[in-house]
Design brief:
219 residues; alpha+beta; Umud Fragment, subunit A; 4-stranded antiparallel sheet; 20% helix; 26% strand; elongated
């Protein structure tokens, strides 16, 4: 004996609503994938990169280097997850391993999705890459020395000098970068918290799209 399948009649109105729901879900998923793997907008909220970047300016960040596990180069302006301790105690610092401290890990699927994908609960910094793995960074007399040579920094505003911090004479470990803000007196950066692991770097600053009179690629 064969059982007949029940006939489910869906009204045109309900069918139309379901089609819109499917379209919205697909659009949201595609937007999230694009935002996570390709590019995303952001707003500058701190003065640490002045006057290269100013508070209130709007940027497009490229995620592509992270997606393809590419390299970050000296001079790149990047965003990265803020360390758990921006000003670590000297008791927590190991000068033989001058790296930033990351000890926060969100718990639960929703918390991880919110933190890593939506980035609602994550704090990120924007800084410039000064040194890559193997580089010797030394800060002395208001100047930065890279591998024994004074670093030419045309992006700094006139009169800006670089004061040292906890990490003012280090070798950048493998898999890390040393970062600083262009507005050195008003930047908490690798001088204070150490080198940033590559896996914590989120994106490169790519394009400034607001204000319109400064529209263009950021170098």
């Amino acid at each position: 004996m064969k059982l007949k399948k029940p006939n489910i009649n869906i009204s045109p109105k309900v069918k139309n609503i379901l089609e819109w729901v499917y379209c919205i879900i697909i659009a949201v998923v595609l937007a999230l994938l694009f935002r996570y793997y390709i590019a995303t907008p952001t707003i500058v909220k701190q003065p640490s990169m002045y006057d290269t970047l100013e508070e209130g300016q709007r940027l497009i960040l490229s995620r592509w280097t992270r997606t393809v596990n590419g390299d970050y180069n000296r001079g790149d302006i990047v965003t990265f997850e803020a360390p758990s301790e921006s000003l670590p105690s000297l008791y927590d610092v190991d000068m033989n391993n001058p790296v930033a401290i990351y000890n926060y890990e969100p718990q639960g699927l929703f918390s991880k999705f919110s933190y890593y994908v939506l980035e609602f609960t994550k704090t990120s910094y924007i800084k410039r890459v000064i040194g890559i793995e193997g580089d010797h960074i030394k800060i002395e007399d208001g100047k930065v020395y890279l591998n024994g040579q004074e670093l030419d920094e045309p992006y700094l505003d006139e009169g800006i000098t670089t004061d040292g911090g906890t990490f003012n004479d280090i070798i950048v470990p493998e898999g890390y970068v040393f970062v600083m803000g262009d507005n050195r007196p008003h930047s908490t950066d690798s001088r204070s918290f150490g080198c940033i692991p590559i896996e914590k770097v989120e994106s490169k600053v790519w394009i400034r799209f607001w204000p319109f009179n400064k529209f263009g690629k950021i170098d």
